Amino acid sequence: MPAPQISVCILAGHGGATLDACLECLQAQSSPPSYELLVGGNLTPEVLSVVRGRFPTAHLCETGGRLPGAARNPLIERATGDLLLFLDDDVTAPPDLLKRLSQTAARHPQASVFGGPNDTPPHSTHFQVVQGAVLSSIMGAGPVSRRYGARHPGPADERWFTLCNLAVRRDVMLPFVSHLVCAEENALLAELRRRGERMRYEPDLRVFHARRPRLSSFAAQMFKYGRGRGELLARRPSTFRAAYVVPSLLLTYLVALPLMIAVGGQASLMLAPLALYCCLTVATALRVAWTLRRIDDAPLAAGLTVTVHACYGAGVLRGLLLLKARRKPGVAEWISTSSEPAETVRLPGEARGAQRPPPGREAYRSEG
């Protein structure tokens, strides 16, 4: 049987209903190229039922308590497609995603990485719509805002892509760093860029990614993103960009501001950066409200902008200053789709906490 053109790799973790919606959109793809499905994560009976109901021949891997990067690595090892497409299980896709990905890869044979924006899904709540608009603004998410809204197609780097919608040619793919709580795709893409691999951003390669339903979950998500970035910076300083630490510098400035004024600093001078930040935040909130055609959204947009910066900045500091010891990936268990017994495997090198790349690819050090 010929190898599929695309291997769709999904980690389950948001429940059966969410995963079912994701798989339903895969089933509904229009004239797709040949593809296979690999699903990893915590494979509860509900998840197994959903996957087998939609894709009886899917490859299923129980990855237990692994961190996301380590959980995806068995899927990479098993995949046989020319392109590896990574999707989150809370993503839904237009019916032409796989066809467009195949066409884009054929038009740009010199590129090894492909991706597009993750948009706010239709029928999202008011809170989620404003959240998505804030994330797609320059003030809201800085250099990674293009991940959340369509930009012009063209060459790109790791700032343009996120793991909920990322395709990589299998012949250049490396294992994800296994010990990061988040941002494992940033480590991978930075290394591929260092090796000279080209990347292509296409707004047509879009998916719809569920936004967080509440302020608390949104704040936790931004903190996690920041923590992953901080851990990556601590272990691979070569990935540093000034924009990644601006929110942390802002937090540090706010904490130190009362002390600076108390020890005799000129208040007007000390408060100038805060005044500038407030002006930029208000201007962004008004622009978001104008874009959404609802001026009443401005206060919420301003609050979410501050939430992004505060939580992401705190997360970066957490990742930089309180770096956890690495934990060894656990055993990955491939679950048979037939009556045969499950296959329990440990990827080569995992007993020592190392990872093996696909054949012919040299592993890279995550410490930088």
Walk me through the structure.
This protein is of the alpha/beta class. The chain starts with 5 loop residues before the first strand and ends in a 23-residue tail after the last strand. The strands form two sheets. It has a ten-stranded mixed β-sheet, sandwiched between helices. Strands 5-11-7 form a three-stranded mixed β-sheet. Mean pLDDT is 88; it is low at 344-368. It has helices spanning 16-27, 45-54, 68-78, 97-107, 126-135, 138-141, 184-194, 215-235, 242-262, 267-291, 298-321, and strands at residues 6-12, 35-41, 59-62, 83-88, 91-92, 111-115, 118-119, 154-155, 165-169, 198-201, 207-209, 332-335, 343-345. The protein folds into two domains: 6-124 and 147-211 and 326-352, Spore Coat Polysaccharide Biosynthesis Protein SpsA, Chain A (Alpha-Beta Complex), CATH 3.90.550; 219-321, no CATH class.
List keywords for this structure.
3-stranded mixed sheet; 10-stranded mixed sheet; 13 strands; 368 residues; 11 helices; alpha/beta; Spore Coat Polysaccharide Biosynthesis Protein SpsA, Chain A; 2 domains
Main beta-sheet annotation: 10 strands, mixed
Shape: globular
Percent range of helical residues? 40-55%
Unreliable residue runs: 344-368
- Based on CA atoms alone, the radius of gyration comes out at 21 Å
How many structural domains can be distinguished in the coordinates?
Answer: 2
Kindly estimate the percentage of residues that lie in beta strands according to DSSP: 5-15%
Mean pLDDT: 88
Enter the CATH topology name of the largest domain. Answer: Spore Coat Polysaccharide Biosynthesis Protein SpsA, Chain A
Query: Numbering strands along the chain, what is their spatial order in the largest sheet?
Result: 8-10-6-9-4-1-2-3-12-13
In the CATH hierarchy, what is the class of the largest domain? Alpha Beta
Gap from first CA to last CA:
41 Å
Please identify which CATH superfamily of the largest domain we are dealing with: Spore Coat Polysaccharide Biosynthesis Protein SpsA, Chain A
Number of strands: 13
What is the string of SSEs from the N terminus onward?
EHEHEHEEHEEHHEEHEEHHHHEE
Total DSSP helices: 11
CATH architect. name of the largest domain: Alpha-Beta Complex
